[in-house]
Amino acid sequence: MFYKRSVIFVSSLFRKGLTCDITRKMSSERYLVYITRSDMPECGVELLKKQCDIKMWHKPSPVPVDEFKKSIPGVNAIFCALTDKINKEILDAAGPELKVVATISVGYDHIDVAECKKRGVKIGYTPDVLTDATAELTMALLLSTSRRLPEAQHEARTGGWVSWAPTWMTGPGLAGSTVGIVGFGRIGQAVARCIKSFNTSKILYFNRSEKQEAKEIGAIKVSFDELLSESDFVICCAPLVPETKEMFNKSAFEKMKNTAVFINTSRGGTVDQNALIEALKKNTIRAAGLDVTTPEPLPLDSPLFKLKNCVILPHIGSATIETRNTMSEISANNILAALNGTNMPAELK
Ligand SMILES: *[C@@H]1O[C@H](CO)[C@@H](O)[C@H](O)[C@H]1NC(C)=O
Ligand SMILES: *[C@@H]1O[C@H](CO)[C@@H](O)[C@H](O)[C@H]1NC(C)=O
Ligand SMILES: *[C@@H]1O[C@H](CO)[C@@H](O)[C@H](O)[C@H]1NC(C)=O
Ligand SMILES: *[C@@H]1O[C@H](CO)[C@@H](O)[C@H](O)[C@H]1NC(C)=O
Ligand SMILES: *[C@@H]1O[C@H](CO)[C@@H](O)[C@H](O)[C@H]1NC(C)=O
To answer: PANTHER family, alphabetically (predicted)?
Structure first.
């Protein structure tokens, strides 16, 4: 067959005693799947192992590009994460036997979608399932930023806590405030539902298209500029598309209240990071909480880490145990279905 013996070293372990529901046409050989991480959640990997041969990068860190290219000639499927760039180079390295790329993420800006389409390579992703987890994290980040939890914890641990004090460690509350949500898709709406329970006075949203769900939530559609000038909390839940690229730039931060708290849990790229650093330094806005940065990981010497009014999380939006397991299972089923020629649970079309 076209792939070398060395490529299928893992296969003998799983081959015995298992029925092959999906096998390559014209042969009894099993499909070969490359997994870019050693720590993809087990449940998905186990699903694949039952029916396919697996080759896997042996570390829990991203596979280096050279290693990636060396490992994939002849594979039928790639199970990847948002840290793996799937571009022309990688698709060329994989070759014509590649049928499907499945990413364990809802975002797909790391995949050259047009190039995949051109080659008839299907793309699987994991929409919907991480909505609740991301909304939870957004709330956690918002409250951590407004109520200054990391700073307070640091003070408590390092002797800064000398007595109760009336204005010490105070921050703005959600009750009675106006919250603006940019990007009112599934995640934006889930965040709005959580926020409402904090007795906010108004929820505004900006989205090009009118959202049916807004009425039931009680959110009001406004222009981007109105949202910026009226909101006490500005939350970015927009995907990174050409229209949202660096929409949070210098002029956007200047339009915000100087008491505003900015929360960003979408994708690096929707924010002009230098403009944000300036805005935080000059108190153009009060504080920011970020779960996504450019680049990722953010270098230790980034000025953002030096700012007390900035809370930075290492892109853990979807990191609930349940959600990551579900994402892994969907990715595996995306691969199995694509190889089998049946409908994928979540195909990016
Ligand atoms: C909610 O907010 C309104 C006005 O901002 C206030 O009158 C009311 O007491 C608040 N309710 C609760 C339960 O905090
Ligand atoms: C608004 O909604 C559309 C489709 O529902 C979505 O594609 C778009 O990215 C959303 N966000 C913004 C900022 O317009
Ligand atoms: C910021 O972005 C807006 C469009 O969203 C643009 O009109 C404006 O010129 C930009 N400002 C700066 C300082 O880049
Ligand atoms: C959020 O902020 C970071 C840091 O400024 C920026 O790089 C990124 O593009 C923004 N988008 C999100 C979702 O973080
Ligand atoms: C493969 O396709 C057949 C029908 O063509 C279906 O019965 C079977 O369940 C599929 N298997 C997988 C793993 O999708």
So the answer is: 2-HYDROXYACID DEHYDROGENASE-RELATED (PTHR10996), GLYOXYLATE REDUCTASE_HYDROXYPYRUVATE REDUCTASE (PTHR10996:SF277)
